[in-house]
Structure formats: structure tokens, C-alpha cells
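Standup notes, structure subgroup. Blocker cleared on the pyridoxal-5'-phosphate input:
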Amino acid sequence: MIAENLRRVKEQIAEACVRAGRTPESVRLIAVSKTKPASDVLTAFEAGHRVFGENYVQELLVKFADERLQNLPIEWHFVGHLQTNKVRYLAERIAMIHGVDKFSLAEEISKRAKKYNRSVPILLEVNISSEATKHGLKPDALFAEAEKIFSLPRLEVKGLMTIASPDRDKVRDEFKEMRALFERLKTIAPNPNQISELSMGMSGDFDIAIEEGATLLRIGTAIFGERKN
Ligand SMILES: *Cc1c(COP(=O)(O)O)cnc(C)c1O
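Run returned:
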């Protein structure tokens, strides 16, 4: 089931790339395994997938420690809202932190990265739909915050991340606006080549995200099935 879903999703991504005139290599799939057991991650791994995303620190730590997954070459992304006091649990192993939405959080990641003598790739989260319940920087606050975050050592600001509104009619405009913010971010970045990732598109809207320039898709339900909450 998971292997079949993964195959179908990858096929849909490839088709959307063709429609958008993009190469399949320009889009990477993060399989979001939150709330799903380590055995599901293992199944997807055995089907050839290597890049996974989680959005709860506690759950990610359980998966880090799972003996079936421990020594596998899995690239783990943290895609959720990260509390500053939890950064220390992720700093050593995480491949990318998607949801950075304030300077103090970036500062803590920078500090912890130093401890592990590495630099940590991050994305700045934008609240593009301006829903009060969502995390992320308002578009008009993004660039001032980004300027400050660029100055921190051992952080690689790679680009932007967003969660679009659930209303599919609004999604395309939101993704277009994200693309514009992404292009503008390049113009203020100390190293524009480093701004290469636009993380947007989930199970319900990844086709639109690809058309609007996403480079990282975060897909859970379409691969692992519905989550029970
Ligand atoms: C859960 C989650 C996803 C995946 O959502 P699906 O609709 O299940 O594909 C993507 N991004 C974030 C931040 C999430 O929390």
C-alpha cells in the first residue's frame, strides 16, 4: 500500500513537472511520516525513498532511536513548528529545519549548530494565508527578519516554506506570492545562490505547487494514508 502510494505520487509529480516544463530533478519529495510508526518509514525506505519529514520533536526522537531506522541513510527534515527549547534535540542530525519564523529561534539553531561543529540548513516560514492559527512570518515582516538571520553564523538560509490555505481556490495565488517573495529574498541575500529551496505543496495541492515553482514537496496522507488524531 505505502510502496504503491509512493510510486503513484512520484508518477504524479513527474507528470506535473512535464506540464510545468520542469525537470523531475528540480523537485524533491519529502515523505511526511508524522503520527505513523517507524515500520511505515521502513516500508517506504525499502521501496527506495530516503527523505522523510516529521513535525513533532518527540516523535522524531522516537524514530531517531528506533533500532530498525537508526543506521539507515535517511535524510530527516523537521517541517513543524519548533520551540526554541527543543532545538538542542535536533541540532546534531537534522538535514533541514523548515519552520523558522523568528530571530530568537534562528539564534538558538545557530548556537547549537556550533556545538556540533556543523551548519544547519533552514527555511523561513511565511504565513501566506494570514490565518491567525498559523505560524510563520507575515510577508511584510519577512525581509527585515531575514536580514537579521542572514548575519548568524552556521546557518544556511536556503529559502522559504509555507502551508497554503485549505481553500484550493486561494492556493495558486498564495503560491505565486511565495514565488515572488522567494525571488525577492535572493536579491537581499549575501549569497543569492544559497537561496534555492521553496518548500510548499502537500497532498492536496502539490500539483499546483509544482506549477508555481516549489522545489520541496511535503507529502504525508497521499503516501501513508489518513492520520487518526
Ligand atoms: C502534516 C504536514 C504535511 C503533510 O500534509 P498532508 O496533507 O498529509 O500531505 C506537510 N507539511 C507540514 C508542515 C505538515 O505538518
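Discussed briefly. The chain has one domain: 2-80+96-222.
Next: hand off to the docking folks.
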